[in-house]
C-alpha cells in the first residue's frame, strides 16, 4: 500500500541519511526501482512529472500500475507515489487519482502567490492523508518547460513557506536539472545551512541529484537534506545499455527484437544506478 512520504523523510533526517526519489516513465522503470528497493530493504519515492504522467496516459493509470505491481511483486518496503514539480491543477488531479504525495512548484510565482497556493494545497493534501512538498527558489535547467537558472533561495522565504505546514521543502541551492555544465559553481552550503537553521526539523529536498559529486551529496545530507531526486542518471544508463545491445546486433539474433529482451539491458542498468544511489544516500536497510 502506498504511504505518504512524511514519516520516511522525518526518520531519514533524524538518522542522517536520505531517501531517493526516482522518477518513473513506464512499467520497466517502475519495476526496476521497486524490486531494487525491496532487495535493499530501502524506503523509496516514485516521482512522476506532469509530462511523464501524460505520457503514461494519466495519473489514474500510474496509480493502478504501481498499486498492482506492488501487490504482485510482494513489495513490503515503504513506497510513496509523488507528483514532481506539480502545477496547482496537476496537484488536484493527483489527489483525486490516489497519489500518496504531491509537490507543488510555485517557485516561478511571486512569493505571496506561492504562499497562498501552497497554503490551499497543504489543507487539501492533509485532508487526504498525503504529504506535500513545496519549492522556493527555482532549480536550474529545464523540467517540463519550467526553466530555472540554479538560483539560491532566500532563507526567510523558505521559513515563510515551511511555516505553512508543508511536510518537506525543496530550496534552490545552486542545483540544476539534467547534466551539469562544466562551469557549474557547485552547491551553496552556506544557503543550505541558513535554510536549515530557519526551518528546524523539516526535511529538505535536493533536486537535480544527477552529477553532483559524492562528497557534496554527503555534506548536503549532513545539513538536513533527507530526499534526493534522481531522474537523468537513470535515463542515461537506460539509453546507454539499450544502445550497446542494438549496436552489438543482439536485436537481430533469434528473438532479440522481443521488447522483453530489447528493454532488459536498460532495465538492468536502472537497477544498478538505483542501487548505487541508495548506497550513497544511506537508505539501505532503513525500511
From TrEMBL:
Q: Where does Zn(2+) 2 bind?
A: 105, 135
- Residues the entry annotates as binding Zn(2+) 1: 85, 177, 207
Write out the GO MF terms.
Answer: fructose-bisphosphate aldolase activity; zinc ion binding
Q: What class of enzyme is it?
A: lyase
User: Where does this protein hold dihydroxyacetone phosphate?
Assistant: 178, 208-210, 229-232
State the CDD domains in the record: TBP_aldolase_IIB
Cofactor binding mode, per the note? Binds 2 Zn(2+) ions per subunit. One is catalytic and the other provides a structural contribution.
Give cofactor(s), names only. Zn(2+)
| Keywords on record | Lyase, Metal-binding, Zinc
- EC id: 4.1.2.13
Q: Check the record and name the PROSITE patterns matching this protein.
A: ALDOLASE_CLASS_II_2
InterPro entries reported for this sequence: Aldolase_TIM, Class_II_FBP_aldolase, FBA_II, Fruc_bis_ald_class-2
SUPFAM superfamilies, alphabetically? Aldolase
Q: Which GO terms describe its biological process?
A: fructose 1,6-bisphosphate metabolic process; glycolytic process
* Domain of life, per lineage: Bacteria
Q: What positions constitute the catalytic site?
A: 84 (proton donor)
Pfam families linked: F_bP_aldolase
* Residues in coiled coil: none
Q: Which NCBIfam families match?
A: cbbA, fruc_bis_ald
The protein's name in its UniProt record: Fructose-bisphosphate aldolase
Task: Name its species.
Answer: [Ruminococcus] torques
Q: Which gene encodes it?
A: fba
